[in-house]
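Hi all, long-time lurker, first post. I run a small reading group and we've been trying to get comfortable going from sequence to structure in the token notation. Rather than ask abstract questions, I figured I'd post a concrete chain and ask someone more experienced to write out its structure so we can walk through it together at our next meeting. Sequence below, copied exactly:
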Amino acid sequence: MSEAPVVPHVSPAIEPHTPPHTPNSAFAPLREPLFRILWIAAVISYIGTWMQRIGAAWLMTQLTTSPLLVGLVQGSAGLPAFLFMLPAGALADMMDRRKLLLYTQWWMVFAALGLGILTVMHLTTPWLLIFFTFLLGIGAVLNDPAWQAVTPEVARPEQHAAAVALNSAAFNVARAVGPAFAGVVVATSGSGAAFLINAASFFGVILFLYRWKRPRMPRAVSVNLPGDMMSSIAAGIRHASSSRHVKSVLIRSVAFSSCGVAYLSLLPLVCQPYKATGFGLLWAFFGIGALSGAVALSHLRKHFSIDTVVAAAIGLFALMTAALGRAPNFAALGAVTFLAGMAWIVILASLNVTAQTMCPPAMRARAISLYLLVLQGGMALGATVWGAIASRIGISTALLAAALALVLGLALVPRHRLVADSTLTPGTMPAD
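-- Answer (accepted) --
Happy to help. Here is the structure in token form:
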């Protein structure tokens, strides 16, 4: 199935009034009403997502002391990525993305609402909590490729890189605010209240999607599931295997994510002397650093190639990973975490931009689903491996080993260069 180039159009209520030649700065996309409304709605939704995560983790510790069941809460949230990410990318290329996003948003509303009601009524059991967490994970996975694929439709081509960085920063702003907010809500009203707030947090995005008048495709396309879906997935995989640019993005993504995740997975252990309050503050530092990195990325891209920017950011992140296990006090730990957040967002936003521009529009969501599968798969595998390594050789030594692995991964740069052009118009691609 192919999709014609899409020209964004919105209802008069949210029609952009920005002049055609808005300066290409880090915050330029926020000057456009369309992107700004969606970005604010996304921040609210992400805060709800973080409240859901904190509430679910805390509730399970209240329901059982089994380490297996406590671990399954996180596992049930991550498992859908391995099961449904590729079909999600195919669906986002086969269906109208606006409609698909509405379906997934309502799916998550009802899943969060159901869990919230059961929890308020004290009817939630460990397995019910795992089941509803799994349902929310399915909704998030089906949502992600379509969500990222519409970014070029709600931001000007010359502002694409800045828009992607701001989207990533939105998640990290929520990462700083959400857990702290969740702690207050859970302490005063219980986990059920956090789940109900998460259900309500989706309505900003839903309202935006209802008001966004995305043009219909020029011809009706009959979708025959699952046959068309399997063909669509196979076509996406064939394209990835034959495109040098796609393979480079995937290889570079897994090389970074599998080693870079050591920082995030071992951070809670490093923070043990500072208790939950210190851990929350460090996440805030990481989120603020990510927002600063999003601002810096727009300026860096004007003066350096994407390969240079990513390589420098990986070098900084590697240095902060090594420093994490050797910070002498909380102030030093906060500075390290802030810089790590900056580097993290520069790397992931750059990879994300590359993933979104490495394929024609009709193939974009499938390419993004492959990128997300590789990225999240690398993180899941890396977190397990580095956790096991840390249990054998110690946290500080494991972090140093992860930092060295990140530096060694830079050897991939000459053979697998990243090619991303945020000024590409729909339907144009750099030659392979």
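A couple of things your group might point at:
The first helix runs from residue 33 to 63.
The chain has a mean pLDDT of 77.
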